[in-house]
């Protein structure tokens, strides 16, 4: 049974954080995106590398095997996760702030694809969440825009990944999206744009704008 509570906290102010700060800043943006729109009531955001003293949704999302999370069954920690109003996983994000090799980020991808469930630790224990056929997994990485590495990812690795069927209860490889840029700031900008496209915030009504 999925049990959870909606996070209720004020709009957060962007500020520089400790190591992993780009990921932490993204987590703040992601939280604000869902909290301020009013379009996604019940959606919850959890992310790593933030300020746990002032933000109660700075919790490391974890992926695991089987029915119960433990040190033996947990196979990956993730940077951010968005839960839909029914408690299922809508979006998972992994960010590599430093230049990554295909071996490194593919390890992160397949670790997440192996997971049958995901968990968030609360004061009363871990709350378990399942993926759906619509769960999206976005990997944003910094990859030098030179040599063969980027072409290998785009022309060989990415198409081949889509051929895998995935686990019955896991994330579909077809739902994995890669965002590779030579600078991590550019990768995160594109990541935010992709999320805005997937979860758009409605523009103000024209009549309401004129009335205001």
Short description:
The chain is of the alpha+beta class and 212 residues long. Helix content is 30%, strand content 26%. The strands form 2 sheets. Strands 1-4-5-8-9 form a 5-stranded mixed sheet, sandwiched between helices. Strands 3-2-6-7 form a 4-stranded antiparallel sheet, with helices on one face.
What this model shows, in words?
With 212 residues, the chain is of the alpha+beta class. The chain contains five helices and nine strands; from the N terminus they run H-E-E-E-E-E-H-E-E-E-H-E-H-H. Helix 1 (21-37) runs parallel beside helix 4 (184-198). It is globular, with a radius of gyration of 18 Å. A five-stranded mixed β-sheet has the order 1-4-5-8-9, sandwiched between helices. A four-stranded antiparallel β-sheet has the order 3-2-6-7, covered by helices on one side. A hairpin with a 5-residue loop joins strand 4 (80-83) and strand 5 (89-99). Helix content is 30%, strand content 26%. Mean pLDDT is 85; it is low at 1-17 and 206-212.
List keywords for this structure.
212 residues, four-stranded antiparallel beta sheet, disordered C terminus, 5 helices, five-stranded mixed beta sheet, single chain, alpha+beta
How far the N terminus sits from the C terminus, by CA atoms, comes to 45 Å
What sequence of helices (H) and strands (E) makes up the elements?
A: HEEEEEHEEEHEHH
Which term fits the overall shape?
Answer: globular
**Fraction in beta strands:** 25-35%
In which order are the strands of the major sheet placed?
A: 1-4-5-8-9
Number of strands: 9
Radius of gyration: 18 Å
Class by alpha and beta content: alpha+beta
Count up the helices. Answer: 5
Spans of 5+ residues with little confidence (pLDDT < 50)?
Answer: 1-17, 206-212
Q: Mind describing the biggest β-sheet?
A: 5 strands, mixed
Mean pLDDT: 85
- Range of helix content: 25-40%
